[in-house]
Design a protein that fits this description.
With 162 residues, the protein is mainly α. It contains 9 helices and no strands. Helix 3 packs across helix 8 and helix 5 runs antiparallel to helix 6. The chain is globular.
């Protein structure tokens, strides 16, 4: 079953509940457009456009009233590993803090799990590596994991158990 398709307007509406600065809302929209461009033509195993994943991750984070940079980081979190994003371009467009968040998540995502018996400890270590630079990385990674778990039915059985 697919997630309800969300749009950038849904995310911005949620953000408007606690982010009053229109410039910050515009930057969130710009980050969405950048992520959309980076993920253009990509599809998740569910058949949804790939951009729906970072949108869902950002939407989850609005429930925590996270700051603008965290929302932007959530929108951009897969642009390096699973898109055509460029870290320097992200830094130029969205600032060094956002680039560091995206870089940290990218590092975490590149670490590989070696087996079922080690999965929990290795995953925890990945989180701690991300935490060492910025706690916002933890929020994004946990929201990412939550959304992936919500769409687990589209993964092969072996991947669902790991």
């Amino acid at each position: 079953m697919k997630d309800k398709e969300i749009k950038i307007a849904d995310l911005l509406k949620r953000c408007e509940n606690y982010i009053q600065n229109k410039d910050e809302l515009n930057i969130i929209n710009e980050a969405y457009l950048y992520a959309q461009k980076c993920h253009e033509g990509m599809v998740r195993k569910s058949g949804e456009a790939y951009i729906n994943h970072p949108l869902n991750v950002a939407l989850i984070l609005t429930e925590l009233n996270v700051d603008t940079k965290t929302i932007i980081g959530a929108l951009l979190h897969e642009t390096i590993n699973h898109g055509s994003g460029d870290l320097k371009e992200i830094s130029d467009k969205f600032g060094e803090d956002v680039a560091k968040i995206v870089k940290s998540i990218s590092k975490i995502n590149k670490l590989e799990l070696n087996g079922d018996s080690e999965s929990s400890s290795i995953y925890l270590r990945k989180i701690l590596v991300g935490l060492s630079e910025d706690v916002r990385v933890l929020f994004i990674k946990l929201a990412d994991r939550l959304h992936n778990m919500r769409t687990l039915q589209f993964q092969p059985d072996v991947k669902q158990r790991s």
